[in-house]
Each structure stands twice: as structure tokens, then as C-alpha cells.
Amino acid sequence: AQSVTQPDIHITVSEGASLELRCNYSYGATPYLFWYVQSPGQGLQLLLKYFSGDTLVQGIKGFEAEFKRSQSSFNLRKPSVHWSDAAEYFCAVGGQNDMRFGAGTRLTVKP
Amino acid sequence: DAEITQSPRHKITETGRQVTLACHQTWNHNNMFWYRQDLGHGLRLIHYSYGVHDTNKGEVSDGYSVSRSNTEDLPLTLESAASSQTSVYFCASSERTSGRARINEQFFGPGTRLTVL
Q1: Distances in Å between the alpha carbon of B75 and those of B32, B47, B83, B89, B111?
Q2: Nearest in space to B48 (alpha carbons), one of B62, B18, B28, B68
Q3: How many Cβ atoms are within 10 Å of A27's Cβ, its own excluded?
Q4: Pairs across A and B, CB distance < 8 A
Q5: Contact present, B113 and B19 (Cβ < 8 Å)
Q6: What is the distance between the alpha carbons of residues B17 and A52, in angstroms, rounded to a whole number?
Q7: What is the pLDDT of residue A69?
Q8: Which residue(s) pair with B87 in the sheet?
Q9: Could you say which DSSP state residue B26 is in?
Q10: Interchain CB distance below 8 Å, B100 and A90
Q11: Best of B43, B97, B113 to disrupt the A interface by mutation (most A CBs within 10 Å)?
């Protein structure tokens, strides 16, 4: 079965700084990849997804992610973080029948 | 607007009791899912359904059951609640698509926080 690793449990960045959240996956075929964001007390919201095609994917709220097959990675980036980006971020990989989520990375934004 | 709702939002119960968590979606999605979220584990799939009368076990299905009698609802039942089932439960749904994608963007409900004492 597919699996996802998010190596960073907690990241703190200053407002206005750039952000990169790491995601590594394991899957034998071409994966379907997703990034979700969860604000406190809320459900998950899709930021972006990759199924095929251009390996650089643009999402909502100014986020982007790059699929690198050689590194089995799908890292999430944002050039300038806003205080409202503080949340938990989940990477997910779709296999044949279901999706597996990483353990999440909590983002704290310093003023 | 279409949405997915869960009820109750908070539930406290005792060990051994049967508990049912409701999930209702108005997206008219064929696919529905139940996850539990625990610190350090992210979301883990409990059960899922690809249509009416279809149910499948996920990676942590022991102690849980679901039934799908219509498109809109997928209730999750804990037959005999255990303290290890204290968690936040999320329901999600997605559109059926062609090809390999039973995998598609999932829309999540707001969650149910369950405490088993």
C-alpha cells in the first residue's frame, strides 16, 4: 500500500518569509498527490493536487507544489507567508482504491 | 450550496456503549469515507463506500461498521465503544471519476470529537 512521510512535525516561520513543507511518498505506480490544510477545529480543505502533466502545480492561497519523481517528493511552497497561513498541513497520496495521509506539519507564523 | 455535515459535533460516551456518528452530504457524491485523526498519526481511513450498498474496510476498521442505504448518508457505528476510540472523526466525500480515479479530491465535514470514558 502507498504511504506518506512528512518529516517535519512543526515548523515556525516569520510572516513574510518563504515556506517549504516536505512530503515524501511511497507508491509503485504514478501517484495522485494532494496537499490539504486544516485550520483549528475545522475539517480539511484542498490546497492543490497532482494527477499528471506539469510537475509544478499551482493551488489556492498562493501555494504551489512540485512533483519530483526521482526524489519521491511533493513539497509545498509559498514565497511569502501570511499570519493566516498558520494551520496544520497534510500531504496525501492516492493509490488504487484509497488515499493515505501523512501525520501532518503544524505551521506557526511569527509576527 | 452543497455541503457535508456531521453530527453530533461532540460526544461523550462510556466504554461498552454503542455509538453512531452521522454523516450527510448534499454533493450527490458516490464516494464517502470515514477517517479518524489522532496526534502523530494524521488521518487514518476507517471505512469507505463507492456507492449505495457498497462498503469497504480501511486500515483501522476493527470495532467500527458502516452501512450505505442511500447516496447522501454514511453513518459510522462503534459497536462497543473503547477508550482507544477516543478521537476526532472526519467524514469525507468525493465525486466518482473515470479511469483510476476512485481517487479524487475529497470534501471534508467539520469533524466529530468523540470521548470514550
Answers
A1: 10, 10, 20, 12, 13
A2: B68
A3: 18
A4: 62
A5: no
A6: 46
A7: 92
A8: B114
A9: S
A10: no
A11: B43
CA separation for the pair A65, A77 (Å, rounded): 6
Summarize pLDDT for A21-76 with one digit per residue, the tens: 999 999 878 789 999 999 988 889 999 999 888 899 999 999 999 999 999 999 99
- Predicted pLDDT of residue B41: 84
A102 interface with B at CB cutoff 8 Å: yes
Among all residues of chain B, which has the CA nearest to that of A32? Answer: B103
Q: List the single residue in A94, A98, A100 with the smallest CB-CB distance to B48.
A: A98
Instruction: Provide long-range contacts, Cβ within 8 A and 24+ apart, for A67-74.
Output: A67/A33, A71/A24, A72/A24, A72/A25, A72/A26, A73/A22, A73/A23, A73/A24, A73/A25, A74/A23, A74/A25, A74/A31, A74/A33, A74/A35, A74/A50
Chain A residue closest in CA terms to B109: A43
Q: Mean pLDDT in runs of 10 for chain B (117 residues)?
A: 93 97 95 92 92 93 97 97 97 77 80 96
